[in-house]
């Protein structure tokens, strides 16, 4: 009887953890929105993915700060009392915002790509549970339960990182695209 209860279990788990991907601190307003800092293209035809220039050592970290009530002039859209989500990438958006500036033609040689800072890290746990029951030598049953995002925790999405909209700098308004609510699937297989 004890063997029936203890034997036949399988509990594989998959833990996925990763650092944040490189993100762009954008220059995104006005007639030269994300292009034309170096005169390289017609802005009506596209953009060149220009980064703001990091002018001081980055001190922002890479974790979401929740229930923030910001008192400075940067990131004010975060405040839940003013309709924001209350989540900002930075504990002090004013300090991080001051570490960036627009591109200057003749002084800067590149503003392309992303990677001056990194997005928030993400982690997730998926789990399967299986139990094999044997009734006779030839007849048995397997119970299966699979859980995707078993801990059902919030994964913050990419924040607003645009030096031309300081009121939204660092504001997180959504969940990461690759995480959804917990999903459960159950199955029963009889073999004979």
Strand content: 25-35%
The shape is elongated
Number of helices: 2
Number of strands: 11
The figure for the number of domains is 1
Radius of gyration: 25 Å
Note the quaternary state here: single chain
How much helicity do the residues have?
under 10%
Largest sheet: 5 strands, antiparallel
Low-pLDDT parts are none
> Averaged pLDDT, please?
82
**Order of helix and strand elements from N to C terminus:** HEEEEEEHEEEEE
Going by helix content, strand content and strand pairing, the class is: mainly beta
**Termini Cα gap:** 21 Å
List keywords for this structure.
single chain, 192 residues, mainly beta, 2 helices, 11 strands
Q: Strands, helices and their partners?
A:
Layout: H1 2-6, E1 9-10, E2 13-18, E3 22-23, E4 53-54, E5 65-66, E6 87-88, H2 93-97, E7 100-101, E8 117-118, E9 122-134, E10 140-148, E11 183-191
Antiparallel strand pairs: 1-9, 2-9, 3-8, 4-7, 5-6, 9-10, 10-11
Outline of this structure?
By secondary structure, the chain is mostly beta strands. The protein has helices at residues 2-6, 93-97; strands at residues 9-10, 13-18, 22-23, 53-54, 65-66, 87-88, 100-101, 117-118, 122-134, 140-148, 183-191.
């Amino acid at each position: 009887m004890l063997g029936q209860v203890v034997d036949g279990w399988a509990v594989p788990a998959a833990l996925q953890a990763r650092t944040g991907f490189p993100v762009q601190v954008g220059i995104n307003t006005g007639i030269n929105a994300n292009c034309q800092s170096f005169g390289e293209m017609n802005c009506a035809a596209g953009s060149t993915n220009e980064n703001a220039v990091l002018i001081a050592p980055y001190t922002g970290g890479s974790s979401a700060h929740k229930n923030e009530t910001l008192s400075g002039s940067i990131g004010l859209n975060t405040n839940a009392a003013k309709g924001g989500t209350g989540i900002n990438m930075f504990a002090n958006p004013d300090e991080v915002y001051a570490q960036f500036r627009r591109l200057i033609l003749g002084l800067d040689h590149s503003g392309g790509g992303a990677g001056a800072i990194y997005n928030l890290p993400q982690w997730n746990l998926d789990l399967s549970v299986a139990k094999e029951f044997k009734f006779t030598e030839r007849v048995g049953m397997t119970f299966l339960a699979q859980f995707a995002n078993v801990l059902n925790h919030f994964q913050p999405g990419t924040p607003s990182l645009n030096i031309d909209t300081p009121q939204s700098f660092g504001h997180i308004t959504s969940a990461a695209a690759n995480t959804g609510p917990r999903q459960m699937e159950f199955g029963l297989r009889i073999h004979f």
